[in-house]
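thread: overnight batch results

M.L. [08:02]
morning all. the overnight job finished for the chain we discussed friday. pasting input first so we're all looking at the same thing
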Amino acid sequence: MNPINRTLAFVVAAVLSLATAGLTYWSNRPVQMDDTAEIGQPFFPDFTDPNTATSLQVSSFDKEASKPNSFSVEFKDGKWRIPSHNNYPADGKDRLKTTAASVIGITRGTLAGKAKEAHKLHNLLDPLDEKSNEVDGRGDRITLKAGDKTLVDFIIGKKVEGSANKYYVRRQDEDRFFITDLKIDLSTKFADWIEPDLLDLKKDEIQSIIIDRYSVDESKGEIVSGEQSDLKRDTATSDWTLKEIPEGMKPKASVITAMLGSFDDLKIVGVRRKPEGLSASLQGKGAIKITESTKLDLQNRGYFVTPKGLVSNEGDILVSTFDGVSYVLRFGEVFTGSDVDLEVGKPDEAAKQPEEKKEDDAAKPEDAAADPAKDPAVKKSRYVFITAQFDEAALGKPPVEPKKPEPPKEEAAATPAEGEKPTAPAEPEKPADPAKPATPDPKAEAKAAYEAALKQYEVDSDVYRIRKKEYDDKKAAGEKKAKALNARFADWYYVISEDLFDELRVKPEDLVEPATAANPAGGSEPGFPATPSLPKVPKSDAPADEGAPAAEGEKPAAPEGDKPAEPAAPAEGEKPAEPAAPTEGAEKPAEGTPPAAEPEKPAEAPAAPAEEAKPAAPTEPPAGEAPPK
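M.L. [08:03]
and the structure it wrote out:
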């Protein structure tokens, strides 16, 4: 080979070597160079509109039970429902809106790793992975779909130590994971996804509360009567009254206020679906259908069908409002369980018969896990069966339409009949003598009275129309609300905490307190010292001390001795003579001088010659003397 060819061969070999080296370097470039371009980019760039999602699922892993827990929400039949909780309506609109919006635009942060083996260390294992036996290291998974199309599928791991909102995050279909800023409000609690105001009731609307504390003896099949408490008030600002309250007691305002707050903000922790036939009848879609399976289902919850209707083993409460809507809360069986058990129940819960409790059972060590006091994860709750009804009587008496007054009969007779000639007008009456009073005209008076009554009728009719419309509107609104509430309650047994049950079903002795002590006899108003009563003066025959004034309100005692002579009765047909007037300038006894023992008799005046004598008036006694009796 000549030198030129040899040189060309070397050049070609060098070029090929450089190309090979470049290709090798490109194929083996560091990971950071490949992933740096994705930093700041959304994990799911195509998901920009939360309204396109038709389902949302949040899953976590329960290490104690070694099983995943999933909370899902789906849009079905025009409503958001919770399939994981018996398709209960997800009417917590704020929660749906907040969660869906917070998922949009989550971006990749710094690449933290790409090895699958590092997932457990950062709690990035899939909580729904059934193939894995790992208990630790599982994360939370969020999945949004539009039908069968996946819009978002994240696994969120640990929070980065020392950071505020940074978490380890990966897509479910990738091994790479990133450090990402998250401000997402996730919750798998049932109560966070539903309408919290279950009763749609305000405490100021409550007019009366009747607590019936009967119970059911299941072994004997008998209803055991209990004490009733009947609370009522006239207006929202009136004081509460308690029927048959013990003497010296009054309703305890603080306890009643706490009850009102519990009704206003009734919280449920779980739901169970009622049998289909029972729920349909409660919605007014047919007659009540009580099959054997329905009876068994009711008994498992603590409810029994009797000839008198449905009863519960822990009594009931009737809450009535001023707008005529009444709520009946029937309290059933108590049970214990974890949060998930309370929310949705156990798979075989409805099929189980309630077991009879034995005295020895409480001492068994295996029951320690079911004791809320020994295991804080186990909670005590109770079933409540709620219905609504409308009571028109709560609105008061309906307004009564006023009766139109009838015109006077004379006016009707004054109109001539058809074909009859009108009567010739009478001659005008002469004006009445001004010296004599005019005789009242009955026709004019009747006409004036009719016109006044007609004006009042028109006023009363306007008032009636306004009040009738108000009454009819309140009645229609009350009926509509009761119907809507029944439709809402019909499908469900509700679960409330045992603490809430105790707040609602208050004991009789806790509803009263001692009334304010009454004032002692003879005492004055509260806050002022009582004034001591004055001693009575004993009677004495001795004359009063000179100059002693008579007690206020008392008449001076008449002096002993002869009383003034009664004036003589006048002869028939005559008037008695008038006494002579006292002489002018006559001396009056000195002030304070005691009266003489024998006062002078009043002088008799001679009878008038022409006129009959008038009855004599007794002479006014001098000052200090007692008047004649």
